[in-house]
Amino acid sequence: MANGSLITDELRKLIGVTLETIVFKVEEGAIQRYAQAIGDPNPLYNDPDFASKTKYGRLLTPPGFTGWPVKAGRLSDRLLESLLKAGAPSRLLDGGVEFEFIEPVGAGDVLTATTKIANMTERETRLGKTMFTTLETTFVNKKGNVALKGRSAFILF
Amino acid sequence: MSKQVCYDDVEVGTEITPLAKVATTRMLVQWAGASGDFNPLHYDDDFAKAMGVGAPIVHGALKRAWLGHLMTDWIGEQGKLKKLSCQYRGMDYPRKMKTREEPHDGETWWCKGKVTKKYEQGGEHLVECEIWVENGKGEKTTPGSALVALPTRKRK
User: How many domains is chain A built from?
Assistant: First the structure.
């Protein structure tokens, strides 16, 4: 870190590398509990009978539901550990998120979530020297189609 | 459900029907369980103090989910939410509980938004929106944006 950069060569090597692949099944009860916690009474997320008669044919997930427990697309302990090992600062804040919804996701769907580090930048902020990392997760359904994509920003300082 | 909003009905500046939310300590526990986010930052006073935020704070992801609720309510059955993004800029503190079900008086959060752009592309009628969660002081703690496709009454 002779030049004082937070982004070490070790960290730079992680950019673009797939760090985690998770396969999970979307559970009906998990969708309902998620919708209830948001306070969203939409029958598409809450009422399996109603949902089964719609064009979707099954309980739908509210936008941004990414499985339970939500590991996919989050900075899991394992991911954080790889960053720390490569020399990243250890204090962490959630910066924000960006979703692209391509196909509906519903109860019974099996998704394969692949997470990689899309980029890393750094700048001086009121927190001091601060590193910004974006994780990109692609969720592929059983048909082999990308159902959604998520980008999450993390602030390390 | 309210009546279906159509592409033809919206212009730049059109307001999205606001949605009120009250974050409570009880709701944060429920969200932790439903989302699987068990970070003590959102329920443990001592831990939250040690992390420098003073007291347990509302999950950013819950506010993001509220914005999802705002948009899917507004676009109705025939609308399609294509993109949703937000930034966790400001911290929010939940109301504490007075009884098992009822929170104390205090802050109400409003999810709001307005149309910033409308255009046709690839056979879809697209609408871009600026959205945000506003706290009791009127501060936008969670600004974001959304892209939706709406039905149209026009016949080609």
Answer: 1
Considering the domain boundaries, does residue A92 fall inside one?
A: yes
Cβ–Cβ < 8 Å for B27, B42: no
Phi, psi of A31 (to 5 degrees): -65, -45
pLDDT digits (tens, 9 = 90+) for B121-135: 999 999 999 999 999
- Structural domain of residue A75, as residue ranges? 9-27+71-156
pLDDT in tens, A37-85: 999 999 999 999 999 999 999 999 999 898 776 655 566 677 788 888 9
- The domain segmentation of chain B, as residue ranges, is 7-22+59-149
Q: Write down the CATH number for the domain with range B7-22+59-149.
A: 3.10.129.10
Q: Report chain B residues touching chain A, CB-CB < 8 A.
A: 21, 27, 30-31, 33-37, 60-62, 64-66, 68-69, 71-73, 80-88, 144
Burial of B154 (0-12, 13-18, 19+ CB in 10 A): exposed
- Which residues of chain B neighbour A33 with C-beta distances below 8 Å? 33-34
